[in-house]
Amino acid sequence: MSEADDAEATEAGDGDDAGPAPGREVWIEKYRPETLEDVYGHEQIVSRLQSYIEQDDLPHLLFAGPAGVGKTTSAVAIAKTIYGDDWRTNFLELNASDQRGIDVVRDRIKNFARSSFGGYDYRVIFLDEADSLTDDAQSALRRTMEQFSDNTRFILSCNYSSKIIDPIQSRCAVFRFSPLSDEAVAAQVRDIAADQDIEITDEGLDALVYAADGDMRRAINSLQAAATTGEVVDEETVYEITATARPEEIEAMVEDALAGDFSKSRATLDTLLTETGMAGGDIIDQLHRSVWEFDLSDREAVRLMERIGDADFRITEGANEQVQLEALLASLALANE
Prior knowledge:
Part of the RFC clamp loader complex which loads the PCNA sliding clamp onto DNA. One of its GO terms (molecular function) is ATP hydrolysis activity. By secondary structure, the chain is α/β, with parallel strands linked by helices. The chain has three domains: about 5-25 and about 180-240, Orthogonal Bundle (Helicase, Ruva Protein, domain 3), CATH 1.10.8.60; about 30-175, P-loop containing nucleotide triphosphate hydrolases (Rossmann fold, 3-Layer(aba) Sandwich), CATH 3.40.50; about 245-335, Zinc Finger, Delta Prime, domain 3 (Up-down Bundle). It has helices at about 5-15, 25-30, 45-55, 70-85, 85-90, 100-115, 135-145, 165-170, 180-195, 200-210, 215-225, 235-240, 245-260, 260-275, 280-290, 300-315, 320-335; strands spanning about 60-65, 90-95, 125-130, 150-160, 170-175. Strand 2 (about 90-95), helix 6 and strand 3 (about 125-130) form a beta-alpha-beta unit. The N and C termini lie far apart (about 60 Å).
C-alpha cells in the first residue's frame, strides 16, 4: 500500500462508525471502568467507597497494592461519581515519583486547593506512587495535608504501604488491593473480546489469565497485542506475544533437574532465555508461582523455594541471571544424588 493509500485508509478509519481496528487505540484506557460499579474483582472495597460517597463523608484514602489492580481507576471513578461532568476541574492527579521534587508538587497542591471551587465542599488530589517519596518529603506532604484538610481530600496510591510513614497512614482510610482473581481477569477479557468481535479459545483465555498473574492492565494489553495478528487468539499466540513460558515447560525443567538430568533441564532453560526471550527474573517469578502446582513432595518443594530465594536475591543484586538459574538447577540435581 502506498503512503497516499495508507493516509486515505487512516482518514476513512477515523470516520468509520465501525471503530478503529485493533492497535489503533489503547484498550486499557478505552475499557477503563467509568464508575465504581464497573471495577472488577474488588467488591468489598467498592462497597466501602460507595458508602463514603453516599454519606458525603469522604476521608483521606490510601490505596496499596500491586500494579494493574484498579487503584488509579478507583480514584478516578470516585471523582467522576462526586463531580460528574465537572470532575476534571475538581480532580488533580500527580505522580509522586516525578523528579521535580516535593516542593513543586506541594506548590501545585496549594494552587489547586486555593482556586475557586464552583459549589463543591472539597476537591480531590490523587498522588500516585506515594511510596517513592523520601521520609522528609512525606513529612512535608503530611503538613500540606493538614493545612488543606478543610477543603481538600487526598487519595494516595502506593505499591507498599509499609513505605508510607505512620503519620500519613493514620490520617487515611487504608484500602489494600490484592492481585485480581483469575475469574475477575477472565470476565473482563471475555467482555472486551466480545465487544471487539475477537474469537478467543478457552485455552487462549486461560493463557491470558496465567500470563496476567492478577494484573488486569497486563491482561488487556496482551489481548490487544494478540488480536493484532488478525487470527484466533489461542494459547500459542498468547504465550508467543507475552514471552511467557508454558507452565508445563517450567514444570518439566524442574522435574528433570530433580531427576538428576541436569543437561536436559539446562537445555530447557537455555531455550526459555534465548528463543522465548524471557528475562531471568520472569523465570524466577514463574518458578515461584508454580512450586506448589508441581508434583513434588513437601521436602522437594521447600528445597526448591530455598534455591529460588537465593537465586532471586543474587539476580536482584546484579549477578548474571543465566549463571544463577543454572546454579539453581544444578543444586536441585545434586541434592537428589
